[in-house]
Amino acid sequence: MSDPKCRDTDYIDFLIASPRSFTCTEAASVQPESNDPPAHDAFTRLLHRLEPDPETLWREAEPSVTKTRGVLVIDDSTLDKPYARKMELVSRHWSGKHKRVVMGINLITLLWTDGDRNIPCDYRLYDKGNDGLTKNDHMQTMLATAHTRGFEPACVIFDSWYSGLENLKTIRGLGWRWLTQLKVNRKVNLNRQGLRAVSETAISAEGTVVWLEGYGPVRVFKVVSQHGDIEYWATGDVAMTELERLVHAEKCWAIEEYHRTLKQCCGVERAQVRAGRAQRNHVGLAIRAFLRLSHHFFTTGVSCYEAKAGIVRSAVRAYIADPLYNFS
User: Fold this and answer.
1) What single DSSP character describes residue 49?
2) How do residues 207-254 score in pLDDT, each as one tens digit?
3) Is residue 153 within 8 Å of residue 112, measured between CB atoms?
């Protein structure tokens, strides 16, 4: 058997450099001139040949992470696939971008951040119809893996979708603190007055200790925005102050920035392949492309967007210096 003509790093470099087209045909078209450059079939085989494995991401991410500092943030994002009718992994998911249910692939991410660096450490693709695992199963598995890897985060942060009792108890069992938003109808008990919706309970901005049904004592904070919107945040650490909550909650936005950059700079939504294995590999390689852009940003101060634009500018500059299309 002959050696493969392209490697995973060749595809990652393509994802970083390409401005908008992320097909295997385009990957082959932009390869440097050589006697025997890889054809599009070589890149197609690459996506089907690799073993989808988040462990590869961790090996590259680990040197950038300080396990005893920072927080872990968990959230999911829907990769838009509006025209995919025969693509594996695609099903209907809620989209925060569109504010409705859309066709796409659901990506669940465990992100480490210290406020300066945003490093994806683990991820899963939600495919309950085939693997039988729920989003909560994936969350608990990623947290258990992070614990095995030696993480000691200051807090684990997630939104209300992941605030189920089993998830809270899992984090408590790992010896970690957690911070989450609560839905307004979540039942709590204040001073043994009986279970009521948190929105009907006297909760202060500085935090009120209540009994969370099925869990135990937690501290709940009532946060009112300047527009009058109300959010309820809860933590298993009853000694947490409002200032601590605010610091941790601000870091929670890191995963939103990560998902946006992953989509806009790394082409994670753009793979035009049907097989689930190929889609999994494309997503994994796109996340590894983000790691490289993130490292460049941390070491140089050049944002992922500016670094990507710089590649295009270089190509435009080269063309203007020696234009190919004119009347002469």
Assistant:
1) H
2) 999 999 999 999 999 999 888 899 999 999 999 999 999 999 999 999
3) yes
d(CA 301, CA 288): 19
Taking the CB of residue 224, how many other CB atoms lie within 10 A of it?
10
- Alpha carbons 51 and 54: distance in angstroms, whole number: 10
73-95 per-position pLDDT tens digit:
999 999 999 888 889 999 998 88
CB 66 within 8 A of CB 114: yes
C-alpha distance from residue 212 to each of 179, 183, 244, 271 (Å): 14, 12, 21, 43
b or e along 3-38 (b: 16 or more beta carbons within 10 Å of the residue's beta carbon)? eebbebebbbebbbebeeebbbebbbeebeeeeeeb
Q: Two tokens at 81? A: 């696939």
Q: Which two tokens stand for residue 100?
A: 């409705």
Q: Mean of the per-residue pLDDT values for the chain?
A: 94
Report the sign of the C-alpha dihedral through residues 199, 205, 210, 212, in that order.
positive
